[in-house]
Automatic annotation (TrEMBL):
Organism: Thermocladium modestius
Cross-referenced Pfam families: HTH_45
Coiled-coil zones: none
Name of the protein in its database record: Transcriptional regulator
InterPro entries for this protein: ArnR1-like_HTH, WH-like_DNA-bd_sf, WH_DNA-bd_sf
Domain ArnR1-like winged helix-turn-helix: from-to ranges: 6-81
Source species, domain of life: Archaea
Length: 89
């Protein structure tokens, strides 16, 4: 059995936003596969992130917004800061 740490909620949100930042707008099935999430779980996060203005859905698929990019930048900065002190996030 592998000793793999389960991702936290915030890590999953950051992974979703980072995927969209890197790959552009995407369809949910492709995202679910790439992010190793079930489709239903991904859609729960999509609904929440859409309500918070971090992503939007249009004809191209699911896209990151400027608010989502801002969150991702701050999360990355904070995560790197914590890791510099030896704190796993």
């Amino acid at each position: 059995m592998r000793d793999k740490k389960k991702r936290s909620r915030i890590e999953i949100i950051a992974d979703i936003l980072a995927y969209l930042d890197k790959n552009g707008c995407s369809r949910p099935t492709r995202m679910a596969t790439a992010l190793n999430l079930s489709y239903d779980k991904l859609m729960d996060y999509v609904k929440e992130l859409d309500q918070r203005g971090m992503i939007m859905t249009n004809m191209e698929g699911i896209c990151i917004t400027s608010r989502g990019l801002q969150f991702l930048r701050e999360y990355t900065r904070w995560s790197n800061f914590a890791k510099s002190f030896g704190i796993d996030v």
